[in-house]
Amino acid sequence: MTDVKESPAPEDRAKAEPQRERPTGSATAAATIVTLIVAGIVGLSVWYLARPQPLIVQGEADATRIDIAARVDGRVGKRPVERGQSVAAGQLLFEIDNPELVTKWRQAQAGVDVAKAQLANILVGTRAEIVSQKKAALESAQSNFQLADKTYARIKDLAGTGNAPLQRLDEATNSLEVARRGQDSAQLAYNEAVNGATKEEREIARTNVLQAQASVDTIKADVDELTVKAPIASQVYQIGAELGEYVSPGVPLLSLYDLNDVWLRFNLREDLVKGLKVGDRFKMRAPALGDQEIEAEIKLIETRGEYAGWRATRATGDFDLRTFEVRAYPVSPLPALRPGMSVYAEWPTAEHK
Predict the structure, then answer these.
(1) Domain boundaries, position 78
(2) Sequence-ordered alpha helix ranges (H) in the chain
(3) Which residues pair with 134 in a beta bridge?
(4) Whole-prediction pTM value?
């Protein structure tokens, strides 16, 4: 038979085993550390939430934009540039075909030649053949007057003695008057041929030349507009007319951007503009350039504010803050900065001043 051993009673087992000591000191230290950590986290959270947050203002890069429009009508004949292409100053951008305008210009040039020829003809004086002709006519008129004068004298004597009727005397008197007027007219024609054009006629001829030349210059100015060239070195941004398209005066042809004149534009509320002046410098960052820091100098503060981006200063909306455009230029050239890129800066508020 197997002997079954009886297990000791619980009271006996408790007496047999030695009692273990409880680690009261280490538990207190752990609780203290946890309490400190929690208190630190709470304190940092309160400080972070209570501290004044920096004001971030956002702007964007911009550049000088040149919009070129047609000044004359016609069809686009040439367009040797494409979007995004860099062009030099004076480079051909468009050629507009307008045959009617070119023909009108040539016609005006011919009018100048006619006016100059007329002036030269007046200045050179009367031809010698015409002077001789006028002189011969004068001599003939003088002879007729002398004959009429002698005839009048004879008939007058005869009429005085009663040998000629009074009617003959009247006829002789009339013939003498006609001969005298013919002589005077021939004399004036001869003098005109010898003297040539008057001072006033010469001035009129000169004025006709100037008027014709002015007409040529006016049309030539329009002809020059048929060729559109780049005013400065820039980059083509948009093209508004294609080959063969008919354009009218005022129709946009293309837009250029001067990438050598890039600035940074901010629209700031009037309470943020207070204290700013031209020449102040501040730093900003451009996300597109890897948050590269940019130092810029204020060159322009808009004279008058607008309502774009305003906010009410009172709950009732009695007063509104206007927005002023501030334009700043990078102190150091930054070729990678292009129009449209965003920039931001931490703006000092009243708490940070």
Answers:
(1) 67-96+225-253
(2) 10-16, 24-50, 99-124, 128-161, 166-195, 199-224, 270-273
(3) none
(4) 0.59
